[in-house]
Amino acid sequence: MPRRKPDSRHPTPDTRSSKLPFDVATVLRRVRAEVAQYADAAMFELHDRGHTSLFEQLVACVISIRTYDEVSLPAALRLFQRAPTPAAVAALGPAAIDRLIGDATFHEAKARQIHEIARRTAEEFGSELPCDAEVLTSFKGVGPKCANLALGIACGQRRISVDVHVHRVTNRWGYVSAPTPERTLALLEEKLPKRYWVEINRLLVPFGKHVCTGVRPKCSTCPVLEYCRQVGVTEHR
User: Residue 236: CB partners within 8 Å, gap ≥ 6?
Assistant: First the structure.
């Protein structure tokens, strides 16, 4: 009786049992090579375009929450072109900020948050935010994800920012097993070598968008399939 061909939509049991021991250095090296063909994660690209201050990075991260990079990056660039300093952003007022970032999800609430961040940055910190996580998370709407990413990019601090892509991909790999981004962050801080703490967000945002997608990931062409445990994957390309 001829053997039935495996359904490519579903990982087979023997495929999962033959995985190589997870080598994070090799995996991230391969991911780095794979994502070189895609656009950079928005906040890293913003930095490379000269918007390097902690204020700019923090505001850009607020804009990016639940918003695609293709939308959040142009929105941030419009805002900073119009108002390049915290005082200038504060002077715009929430309504004008809202018009500039109007493509972003929850733009009205974000405009009010950004105005308050700009006002406090200008008035309380002399227009230069300190590289202090407690200060950043004291702003409404700023959690560990944005604080860590902004501090990592603008201040060179070794911090991990766990967004939906970092959470999904590292758990799918089987590198961590966590039900929430907060728990993923704690586990990554325990086991991920510190030299990758900032870069993992830069790598896994485009990797999660284009390869290890939320629905039907591209397992058949994935450069790290032999290491990935494919946790939770029931259908793939």
Answer: 8, 9, 10, 11, 216, 217, 218, 219, 220, 230
Tens-digit pLDDT profile for residues 54-97: 999 999 999 999 999 999 999 999 999 999 999 999 999 999 99
Which amino acid, one-letter code, is at 60?
A: A
Token pair, residue 110, equals 């974000």
**pLDDT tens readout for residues 136-149:** 999 999 999 999 99
Cβ neighbourhood burial of 228 (10 Å; 0-12, 13-18, 19+): buried
pTM: 0.88
Q: Looking up tokens 């850009």, which residue turns up?
A: 60
Query: Residues near 225 by Cβ (< 8 Å), separated by ≥ 6?
Result: 219
Cα distances (angstroms) measured from residue 147 to each of 94, 112, 115, 120, 156: 22, 18, 17, 16, 12
